[in-house]
Amino acid sequence: MTFKLETNGGRLTPRDKKLLLLLAVVFIVGVAGYGLIRPLFVSNGQLREQIVQAQEEKQENKEKVVLVTQYRINNEKLKQELEQVSGRYFAWMESQQIDAKLTQTALQYGLQAQALDIQMPQDEADMQDLAPYVNSEQAQQAASDADDAQAEETQEQTDSSDAEEPSASATKDVKSGLYTAVVSMQLQGARDQLQSLLDSYAAQQPAVRVTGFQWNTASVVGADGALTEVATLTLNMELYMIKNTEEIAE
Amino acid sequence: MLTIYLTKHMIQAVAGAGKTISVDRIYQQRIPAGLFTHSGIADAAELSDILQAFWVRHQLPKKDVMLVLDSGQLVNKFLTAPILRPAAMRNFLAPEFSDINRSGEQVFGYWIASEDKKSKMRQIMATMAERTALTQYIELFAGIGVQLTEIVTPLCSLLAMLRAIPDMNRQTAVVQLWNGSSLTNILLMNGDYVYSRTTQMFQQPGTANFSVEVARQIGRFEQFMKAQQLDASISHVYLAGISPDDLSDCMDGIAQIDADIAVSELEIASLLHPADSELPVMDSLIPISALFLGRDYIGLIRQMGVDPERVRDWQEMGHRMRPVAVLGGAAVAVIAVLGGYHLYLSHTLDALTTYNESPLVVRNIAEYDQLAQANHSLQARLDELNGDIAAGESYPVPSSTINRTLEEARGAYVELDVRSYDAQTGVLTIDATASEVDMIHAFIANLRTTELFYDVTYTGYNYDEGAQRWSVHVVCTLSQQAGR
């Protein structure tokens, strides 16, 4: 389709006028509207979104910049606390070092060490969360919490079957850096000396936890031929050792 | 530029330049009588031949030619007009010339004498001519290959020149110009045009009556000023085009009419470049004056292109276009607002980005992230260890403290011996025997009153004939506080 502007001796025909009006409107709508206003509008919208994001980022950055100093202080404080808490446990020992420690202690108490069994932690997987005593308030509270959590989980599953499962194991990934050596030792000697040794280990909590013991007595023929009562203590313990703090922190 | 001054009696040509106002050549030729009538050209063919010969003889240029036409077909009026576009001036000027009886289509040109932009008004010397008359002259010159750029009246040209003369400003004066057949008189008041009159002179130059006739014109102007009650008097008369022989007689004649009037010859040499030209400029003032017109002259030929109907068409189109113009204006406003807003947003984003990406902030954020992660790990590890300590401390302490408490609880008739302990269940195995059966229940009651046990399960006793003692069946589970 072609448009022809009829000159008519310089005069404008009604058709020319309509055509000029149409062209003017098309020009304004096309060039101004579609060519300039719309792109500007779209661009401004994008800029506004970018500004909102940038403002949020700036606010976040400002807060972080302000918090950096506090975080430095907290970091030092946490390291000190960790060092203090770690100091309550044994430093890492190999099995022969455990043997040396326990055997020498037994000998110092005038006892005869008859048997020693040491189960060393195999790898980092052996780091454990110690379960509280079964008859303690903590255990009852934990059981109650577990029941609540289970009830809640059941409710959530009912409410939304396709909801993501909560990451229950998230906190379990934390490495405490604590390693457990399970020790069983059989000692023989005077009942009082054995009891003193038992008291000594019992008092070393939290580095040592006495997990059980058993007393036996036997009549032994002495050098003079007389029968003597000899006590035997089978002592089960867990020794808690901690690896280098920095190593774990990394 | 070539200016041609054409009257019923002669033709003058001035070759020069309009911008610097310079005159290079001047030519003049008389025209035989009878070639013109009051209504126009009587013998176009002969006039054409004369012009052709004039052009050839003087080798005149055929382009950029302006015609200064001394003809009754062109009518001047001095008016005050609003400042309008040239195309729109027709609508204003047509009513002003309605008293002039012309049957054909009229064309209007004008020279802008002065302009006041505050009041948006102008003083103009307007010229009206019929389109057919103008076409007659355009075609006459076109016939000899000359393209006229514009047609102007002598009065417009002279006023343009007089405005350029510094002496004329703020003077009340009369300029008298003799062109060989007629005397043009122009009255200026305070430098502004007031009135003019062109008189055919029946007395020939060189005669005594010629100077009398010239001087008499001044008397008429004084009468005119009185009649018009103009509050000024003529202080100076400038004479131009009058031969030196007649000049002193004319001055004497004017002095006899009014001795207070200063009389001198119009001096324009200083306006020309070079000023010391030997050309007879004073005899060709009218064609020379056309060089002064400049852009202030909106000429007749230019205005011939303005078709009233077409102007009306476009005006009507303009009215119709108003909504479109409003739309366009709105679009421009929207674009301006959006554009300004765009610049503001860009500037804002730049400022935010500059802050977020500044090295100091980036360094602090990196340290923050590293510390946050480290602190989280440390805190988690600390919590784990504290949790382990709390868990460990929840177990009973199997120390001799338990033995002492049991000793206190057993009483005189019961013997007991701790056999074993299992931390997982908390069960403390005890071998208890009683020498008096009736004391067993008291022993169990005592055990239960201590805070040593979480649970004491008593299921009875049996008598051991060999030991002659009652063996007590009791299972004790240590409490959390036991041994502490």
How does this structure look, described?
The complex is a heterodimer of chains A (250) and B (484). Chain A has helices spanning 14-86, 95-108, 137-159, 191-202, 245-249, and strands spanning 90-91, 112-119, 178-189, 208-221, 227-242. Chain A has 250 residues and is α+β, with helices and mostly antiparallel strands. In chain A, strands 1, 2, 3, 4 and 5 form a 5-stranded mixed beta sheet that branches. The two termini of chain A are 77 Å apart. In chain A, 16% of the residues are buried. Chain B is of the alpha+beta class and 484 residues long. Chain B is built from 12 helices and 20 strands. Chain B has helices spanning 44-58, 86-96, 131-142, 154-164, 208-227, 244-257, 285-289, 300-304, 308-356, 359-393, 400-410, 440-449; strands spanning 2-6, 10-17, 22-30, 36-37, 40-41, 65-69, 75-82, 106-116, 121-130, 148-152, 173-178, 182-189, 192-200, 236-240, 262-265, 297-298, 414-422, 427-434, 453-464, 469-478. In chain B, helix 5 (208-227) packs across helix 6 (244-257). Chain B is rod-shaped and about 190 Å long. Chains A and B meet through helix 1, helix 3, helix 4 and strand 4 of A and helix 9, helix 10 and strand 17 of B. Strand 4 of chain A pairs antiparallel with strand 17 of chain B, so a sheet runs across the interface.
